[in-house]
């Protein structure tokens, strides 16, 4: 039996597709669950390619994301694209023994290449930008990572696009710190999305950044208690090596339908979260 026609769009704000992963099934699963739109976020496709050592390496990988978007569109998925070198790629180069100045130059060049794709209309945002958080990093390296992050904000400001930030767990303190870096770079806070966010919806606490709430158990309810100024995401990885490490592709449409059917979210609120908010952040028209 076909799924009933949805009465509101469903936007997953952070979704990866990988040509080496079950991308076709993931796209179909999302659509069949009632999903309509995804923000397809670039990730390093290391299969066979190894680590990105040059700007040209990064550009080849960005092309894979653009190609994945086209292939997913042929299935009926509506796809907006975000590109950027991942903040982990800077520290990966250092771990591989690349001198720090060279690693910085490659990362800066890759950020510039990503901003170019935005200017050319091939992407609507830069993501994932940010800084390392997965293991302790020396102060000097963190300072350089913060400088690269500010550079990405400045490029986004000049390209007129928003960013999705990959950083440590979103807390009132980390939101305040990210807001300070945004201010230093001249990118308004409302042009910045905190990816993988906790449900901190109060703008006095998140400083005007958009929380893209990881939609695990209970987080949507918590976000809705603070209003509708948030986005929903799974951070679906499309990588069979990490089953269950992240939420599956059906999660945002299913969770939304569940909230609406239980009366915890009205259809009007679903429209705000899934259509009006993406339009406000990315300028993308989201229609059924
Ligand atoms: Zn991601």
Ordered list of secondary-structure elements with their pairings:
Blueprint lengths: L10 E5 L7 H10 L4 E5 L13 H19 L4 E5 L4 H9 L4 H20 L6 E5 L8 H21 L3 E4 L5 H14 L6 E6 L5 H4 L3 E5 L4 H7 L5 E3 L17 H11 L5 H16 L6
Parallel strand pairs: 1-2, 2-3, 4-5, 5-6, 6-7, 7-8
Helix pairs in contact: 2-4, 3-4, 4-5, 5-6
The protein binds zinc ion.
Radius of gyration: 18 Å
Largest sheet: 5 strands, parallel
Spans with pLDDT under 50 lasting ≥5 residues?
none
CATH architecture label: Alpha-Beta Barrel
Keywords:
globular; binds zinc ion; 288 residues; TIM Barrel; 45% helix; five-stranded parallel β-sheet
Can you characterise this structure?
The chain is of the alpha/beta class and 288 residues long. It has one domain (11-282): Metal-dependent hydrolases (TIM Barrel, Alpha-Beta Barrel), CATH 3.20.20. It contains ten helices and eight strands. The strands form two sheets. The chain has a five-stranded parallel β-sheet. It has a three-stranded parallel β-sheet with strand order 1-2-3. Helix 1 (23-32) links the parallel strand 1 (11-15) and strand 2 (37-41). It starts with 10 loop residues before the first strand and ends in a 6-residue tail after the last helix. The mean pLDDT is 94. The structure holds zinc ion (ZN).
């Amino acid at each position: 039996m076909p799924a009933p026609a949805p009465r509101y769009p469903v936007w997953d704000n952070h979704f990866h597709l990988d040509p080496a992963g079950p991308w076709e099934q993931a796209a179909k699963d999302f659509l069949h669950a009632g999903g309509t739109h995804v923000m397809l976020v670039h990730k390093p496709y290391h299969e066979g390619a190894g680590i990105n050592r040059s700007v040209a390496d990064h550009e080849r990988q960005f092309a894979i994301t653009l190609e994945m978007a086209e292939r997913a569109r042929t299935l009926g998925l509506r796809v907006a694209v975000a590109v950027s070198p991942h903040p982990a790629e800077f520290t990966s180069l250092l771990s591989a023994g690349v001198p720090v100045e060279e690693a910085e130059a490659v990362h800066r060049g890759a950020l510039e290449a990503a901003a170019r794709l935005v200017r050319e209309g091939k992407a609507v945002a830069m993501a994932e930008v940010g800084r390392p958080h997965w293991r302790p990093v020396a102060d000097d390296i963190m300072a350089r990572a913060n400088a690269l992050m500010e550079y990405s904000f400045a490029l986004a400001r000049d390209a007129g696009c928003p960013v999705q930030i990959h950083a440590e767990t979103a807390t009132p303190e980390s939101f305040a710190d990210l807001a300070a870096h945004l201010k230093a770079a001249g990118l308004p806070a409302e042009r910045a999305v905190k990816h993988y966010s906790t449900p901190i919806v109060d703008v006095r606490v998140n400083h005007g950044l958009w929380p893209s709430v990881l939609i695990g158990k209970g987080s949507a309810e918590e976000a809705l208690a603070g209003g509708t100024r948030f986005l929903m995401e799974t951070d679906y990885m499309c990588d069979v090596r990490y089953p269950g490490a992240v939420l599956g592709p059906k999660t945002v449409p299913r969770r939304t339908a569940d909230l609406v059917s239980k009366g915890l979210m009205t259809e009007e609120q679903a429209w705000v979260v899934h259509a009006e908010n993406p339009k406000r952040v990315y300028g993308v028209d989201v229609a059924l």
